[in-house]
Design a protein that fits this description.
Helix content is 16%, strand content 28%. It has 141 residues and is of the alpha+beta class.
Length: 141
């Protein structure tokens, strides 16, 4: 029998006001629609070839059948990478899944998030880095 791994407590906080984040791209996967949002400062930094600032949130809003199913939050904080051994570190990014009511999904293994995103180290650990770079203020729904 395998070992059950659950989410760990980390520093990621759900953003105070999700509506303050810019919806810069939409990804569709079968019956799932993902709206991805971040700060204007993160968009500007990427466009200027600068590091994404500490304090930045990226939020993937996962819609199923037209309703929010969950949120995936990626947040960057000064020195947060030091919370993990070097092999697991994704610079200063940490990850957390939240249910639609914004409670933490304690069944999600956030080490899996880091493992997957580590393959994008050349793109600030973002799968949507190119969409962020190309964002012109217009989002196709």
């Amino acid at each position: 029998m395998g070992i059950q791994v659950h989410a760990e407590t980390n520093r990621v906080q759900f953003p105070e006001n999700l509506d303050d984040l810019v919806h810069y791209t939409t990804v569709r996967r079968g019956n799932v629609t993902e709206h991805i949002r971040t700060t204007r400062e993160a968009i500007d930094a990427v466009k200027q070839g600068q590091p994404i600032p500490h304090g930045t949130h990226f939020v993937l809003v996962d819609y199923r059948d037209g309703a929010v199913h969950r949120y995936f939050v990626m947040q960057k904080g000064q020195g947060w990478g030091n919370d993990y051994d070097e092999g697991r570190r994704t610079e200063d990014w940490q990850f957390q899944w939240f249910w639609a009511d914004q409670s933490i999904n304690m069944d999600e293994n956030t080490a899996r998030c880091q493992s997957c995103h580590s393959s994008r180290s050349d793109k600030s650990f973002l799968y949507t880095f190119d969409a962020l770079s190309a964002f012109d203020g217009t989002v196709i729904e």
